[in-house]
Design brief:
Blueprint: H1 6-40, H2 48-67, H3 72-83, H4 93-102, H5 108-128
Helix pairs in contact: 1-3, 1-4, 2-5
Length: 139
């Protein structure tokens, strides 16, 4: 098996960072879309699989915070940057801009409180705007 080249490791780290931003956007915009979509009568915001994915993902994020665990995407990105010979927080163009969108310095308890509160909001939205299964289809 050929070793992972530093250039490929760096590219993969950037790809993971992009994926991480996509997860954050999905969670945040998903929570906004549910009440707005209910008000606007958008049927897709009640899609069971979509809502379940959103709820489970937010639950996993909150659980990681309570356990004091780093997100696996962060762990993989940092490992790949080390493999590339980069300092863990040395910034490529993509990393510079995207990391500023989703990372900031704060005491750990702030993250636990924020993630827990957001998970509670997602759970509340599950109750306030319940998802619906399509009749006659197995979800």
């Amino acid at each position: 098996m050929q070793a992972l080249s530093p250039a490929l490791a760096s590219w993969l780290a950037d790809a993971i960072l992009v994926s991480h931003v996509a997860v954050v956007v999905f969670v945040l915009l998903g929570a906004l879309a549910v009440p707005i979509g209910a008000w606007r009568r958008w049927r897709w915001v009640r899609g069971f699989r979509w809502r379940l994915t959103h709820l489970v993902l937010m639950g996993v994020i909150a659980l990681q915070a309570w356990l004091g665990a780093l997100c696996p995407l962060t762990v993989w990105e940092q490992a790949l940057r080390r493999r590339a010979g980069e300092a863990v927080y040395r910034e490529s163009f993509i990393e510079y801009w995207l990391s500023r969108l989703i990372f900031f310095e704060a005491p750990w308890w702030i993250f636990v409180a924020a993630y827990s509160g957001f998970a509670a909001l997602v759970l509340l939205l599950w109750w306030a705007v319940p998802p619906q299964r399509r009749a006659g289809k197995v979800s």
